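ok so for the tutorial part 2 we go from a plain amino acid sequence to predicted structure tokens. step 1 is just haveing the sequence, like this:
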Amino acid sequence: MFKALVLNQVEGKTTAAVEELELNALPAEDVLIKVDYSSLNYKDGLAVTGKGKIIRNFPMVPGIDLVGTVEESADSRYNKGDKVVLTGWGVGENYWGGYAEYARLKGDWLVPLPEGMDPVKTMQIGTAGLTAMLCVMALEEGGVTPESGPIIVSGAAGGVGSVAVSILAGLGYNVTAITGRPETESYLRALGASEIVSREEMAEPARPLEKQRWAGAVDTVGDTILARILAETDYNGVVTACGLAASFKLPSTVMPFILRNVRLQGVDSVMCPFERRQEAWKRLQTQLPETSVGEIAQLISLQDVPEYAEKITNGQVKGRVVIDLNN
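step 2 — the prediction. this is what the tokens look like for a chain of 327 residues:
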């Protein structure tokens, strides 16, 4: 028997409860994993609370990422005792996920944990940190260097934003953080942000082109903030877009792209190929400053997940929330 947070739908409403299940309740996939830790992402919050149409098939065990130890494997790439990490691939949405003491998953979805990587740190990073690193890699591939000028990060106090601020600052970039919560300013400066701008300022509708301010950006929110960032991006700048916390809309024009040669680069971590995931995890192990990891994350139990899911969807969570499946 093992514990899992199980979502059901009753009269159109999502319910979440910790249940005792048998191993044969798990899906028939290749690799059985003893889960050590998972994490709470914004998408998880939407799933657990039912505020977003994330889950369509019930019952469902949510949790879009996890780290753990292989118990059994029908996949030749993995053996009992191997440490693995999983993010994305629809796990926790279409397939049973990480909010359980055990998970059975496809070998193709797994990445071997880098040598020496701590499991807690892995979930302090999680999907959010992987996404942040993929954004940093996209900026670098677009030719944006620390010498190019300031980088702006939206939703900076959230999971992706916090890790992006820390990585970029650690690499020597001058980072400006956007936040709608003034109380997070000291937190963001501790992560390495040199400047703080308000969400209200950046959400003001922009003209097609504004004064050039940013060599690059990591945007997690979309809508008018992304439109303003684009209008303020330098010639040859790169803007990475990886989220839609505000909206999926983009009230912009083509002018930043054709008059300033700005690149808008989408970043997806869900279906990201294995080799790129592996590269990103190796870089996260060495390039996410150790001093920031503790600042970014807090540890909770499986029973606490519904409460924190409500908080994260209400914008009341700072940084990363790690779920201890051993507790």
